[in-house]
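Residues pack. One example:


***
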Amino acid sequence: MTELIGEVAVITGAAQGIGAGCACAFLARGCDVLLADIKAEVVRDRAEALRKRFPRRKVLDYPLDARDQEACFAMADYARDELGSIDIMVNSAGIISPCSSLEVTQADWENLISINLSGVFYCCQAAARAMRDTGGAIINLSSIASKAAWPGRVSYAAAKAGITALTESLAVEWAKLGIRVNAVAPAWVNTEILRQGVKHGVVAVDNLNRAIPLGRVAEVDDVSETIVFLASDAARYITGQVIYVDGGYLAGAPHASIQ
């Protein structure tokens, strides 16, 4: 089990889903954590539950709108002031809003891009300012949607493809600072987002299970464990990479029906 005792992890989108799973995974390895999310009450409750589960670790919560660059800088300052450093940054905040490309409004497009891409950059930038004297690891959440195309997801796909370029560019620029930047690109994960997609008829789990060579959608731990690895010293020579956690989907059936 990878140990990260004494390190500090900051996680956005930490109120639920992959972000919440990452918080548990890092706490289990000995990290102190800051959970950030725009859902202030939900992330506060999540942090309180984790404090009870991991009483020896420091668990802070922070209300964050990642679309606001100055707010991201303030979050990083708070983490460093209260926890002493930022060693690991996980950018998990994001949304998906399936819609025909003919019907996407300017407001819809700009909102999704601002959360899923601009917000990731602002948080990378904020974390790197805190890490530039000590080094660290940044992991961004991408998606197989950056490589495989389906109808109704144009803005999401564009943002996630942008994360690949962002990750590679920052990895090269910040290598001299000892900051590694990687991305994890999951397929479908058993979270509330997937369950809502099933409810609204935009995905069908049976079709997904048939399309994925390993025969199932991912669980949160499948993704969070990969993120922990990339944050650890075991991945000390890995930077500028996108790791696809997809059960073999891209290799086997990237155009299979998902509805």
Summary: The longest helix spans residues 106-131. The chain has one domain: 8-252.
